[in-house]
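Hi support team,

I've been running sequence recovery on a batch of backbones for a student project. Most finish fine, but this one hangs at about 90% for roughly twenty minutes before it completes. I'm not sure whether the input is malformed or the queue is just slow. I've pasted the structure tokens below so you can try to reproduce it. Let me know if you need the job ID as well.

Thanks,
M.K.
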């Protein structure tokens, strides 16, 4: 979570919001499927927030988990939860673009990180920093704003988000978005296109990479009214991305 001012002000409200939106189970399912088996592997959880994903991977057998977030309030909350749960996760306040942890990991997760890069230069620096912290054959698993989303094809009201605007910029679009909460929480994010991501990935030294659509199951569809998931499946705001080091 690179928007430190916004997320410092949100605090625990962010946790409550994301635990309440209907797509939460879909996102969690998709991310863990992309990550795969973590038994005995080291994990770096970027934009870790209050530590949910890293904590889950720790309990799934990761040998070491380190969480990094730019928000001091989020890291304080993550440390508090680790004390409550008695886990041994390490947390740091840092900007991903210039972090220096002096170690390399088998897997790096980055949930809702890359769409906060405010420029192509910043996006490329994020990917370069990630690559510098991965072991050979290590992989990055990311979840972020989908390059192919188009506001004219549908908003995200059913999923707790209201996309207020979509303005073009070099390499993508900039969006004003609000969480549908009381009161609404306003955020800005950047939806970079596929070519911009491809260039950033290759410049950082990654080899193969794959895009991944969210895993909506039949059980998800049956739980809600007909048509509820249509926009999510046909014009989803979010997508997964896996990148492998040579």
């Amino acid at each position: 979570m690179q928007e430190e001012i916004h997320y410092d002000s949100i605090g625990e409200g962010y946790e409550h919001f994301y635990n309440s939106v209907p797509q939460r189970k879909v996102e969690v399912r998709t991310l863990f499927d992309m990550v795969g088996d973590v038994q005995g592997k080291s994990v770096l959880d970027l934009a870790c927030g209050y530590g949910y994903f890293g904590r889950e991977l720790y309990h799934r057998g990761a040998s070491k988990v380190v969480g990094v977030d730019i928000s001091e309030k989020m890291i304080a909350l993550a440390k508090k939860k680790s004390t409550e749960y008695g886990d041994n996760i390490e947390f740091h306040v840092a900007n991903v673009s210039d972090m220096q942890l002096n170690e390399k990991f088998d897997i790096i997760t980055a949930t809702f990180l890359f769409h906060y890069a405010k420029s192509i230069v910043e996006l490329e620096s994020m990917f370069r920093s990630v690559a510098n912290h991965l072991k050979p054959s290590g992989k990055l698993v990311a979840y972020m704003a989908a390059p192919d989303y188009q506001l004219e094809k549908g908003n995200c009201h059913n999923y707790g988000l209201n996309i207020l605007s979509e303005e073009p910029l070099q390499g993508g679009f900039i969006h004003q978005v609000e969480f549908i909460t009381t009161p609404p929480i306003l955020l800005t994010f950047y939806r970079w296109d596929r070519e911009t991501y491809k260039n950033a990935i290759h410049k950082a030294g990654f080899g193969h990479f794959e895009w991944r659509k969210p895993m909506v199951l039949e059980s998800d569809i049956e739980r809600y009214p007909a048509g509820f998931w249509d926009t999510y499946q046909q014009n989803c705001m979010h997508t997964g991305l896996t990148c492998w080091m040579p």
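--
Follow-up from support: It reproduced on our side and the slowdown came from queue contention, not your input. Residues 4-146+193-244 form a domain with the Rossmann fold fold (CATH 3.40.50.150). No action needed from you.
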